[in-house]
Amino acid sequence: MTKRLTHVMPLLLALLVAGLFPACKKSAGSLEALLNTVPADAPYVMTVNAAPVLKQLEFKKDGDKYTFCKEVNDVVNLAGVDKKLLNQICGFIDQTGKSYVMFGSNSDPDEVWFTFGVEDEQEFIKKVEELSKTKFDKKGEYMVLDDHLALRDGQVWACSEKIDIEDIDAMRDLDSDKCFGKKNAELASRMCVDGNVCSMEWNINELLSILRKDGASEEVAVFQAALGLVMDDASYMLSTSMLTEDGMECVTDILNSNFEMAKCTLPLGKIEPAAMAKVNCNAPLLAAVSLPSELVAKFTGLARTLNGGQLGPQEEMLFKMLESIDGTVSASMAGPRDFIVSIPFKTEADAVSAGKLMAASQMNVSTAGNYMVLRGIPTLQGQGSCPDNFKNQFLAYSLNFASVPETIISGVDLSKLGNGFVTLGEFDGGLRLHSKWECRNPMRTLCSYIRIIAEGYITGSIKFPFMEQSDFGASDIEAVDETCYVEELDMVESW
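Now predict its structure.
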């Protein structure tokens, strides 16, 4: 077994590289064709289109060698990668159709399949035998390597378990009602949109069925009860990622059995821009979530039910405080001690009560109206205004690399990494998780910073001050324990 693994390790590395280089034509080996050989009841299906990434990295063949952009070459040189092995892996990738599909088995949770098309079977066999240091065997109409990889008619199947040729025959001849690409055509079409780098689909019902077979019936029942509080008929989760010259964008939806947005049954609110006035909206890290009291009550009610309705005095006090939260909770962070958290409550009395409870933990706490505000440094004040992409969302988070302070990382300018955000909000009656990284030439920029930061860390020119701090300023907290200061709103009480 060890000998076999040693033989196929370079091949597995090649498959991994191809997958990490996260072409939808209808030719053999295209995503559409590959998805037609995937069972419709697969618990999960992942597609990868390497073409956009390889294009950004300037992947080219020059004679017998493969070349990349300068940024990749710099990383390869710094890491001391075996260039002969890298060239062999590139040759393997170049023989594939640049589109790959991975999926799970409905009958065996440990069985994972990986399939893709090849341009030239004989050349592919030659490249794989060079990488694996072993030979293909002919079994019927298939060429098979170590019982874990099979090739026929320009399509390759690799499996984590021993390959059964009959299983591949069955996948090559699936009926329309058993074929992922046809039965789940709505999902397949979204996964094959031009420009998508990676897509991931989870069949929620099939995943839960596998867990039941594995003896986790109680856990499945709890999960279904919790999911039922959030979504109506949640059957699939679909995530798609698109790469362009200006960044990367990812969308995740939960769909019902009709492949439409599953209806959200929670009383979700929307972020109130005015509620973010007390935090630093210009900080590199900014987050906000709308927590109407009805939503908090549902979550605490579920927690009480799962706990058998029995709560100790401390837990009951905590739950009571949580249930008095009502509105947009926001937070900003510009350094290890440079943070502000603003929490709204139903009444001023609720805010004061929560403030006293938090102050007992030696935190810098103050109240203003029905808001409780936590600060790393008592003199910090709110700045800026709510970002446009936070508005009308239930939850939002943003990261601006240009504003990352030297108290977190010093010796490098991160501004070329651009900025990113994540939002969760209502879309077409359901919930959509949307993330976006805005960065020019993202793959080349990322490679450039990998080299800069790794090299700088080795030489000591780049430091991470927050990682070197052994004490989180406990003495400072004691010093401001009795400090009173004035906020923009009238002060109710401070500790």
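DSSP finds 17 helices and 23 strands in the chain.
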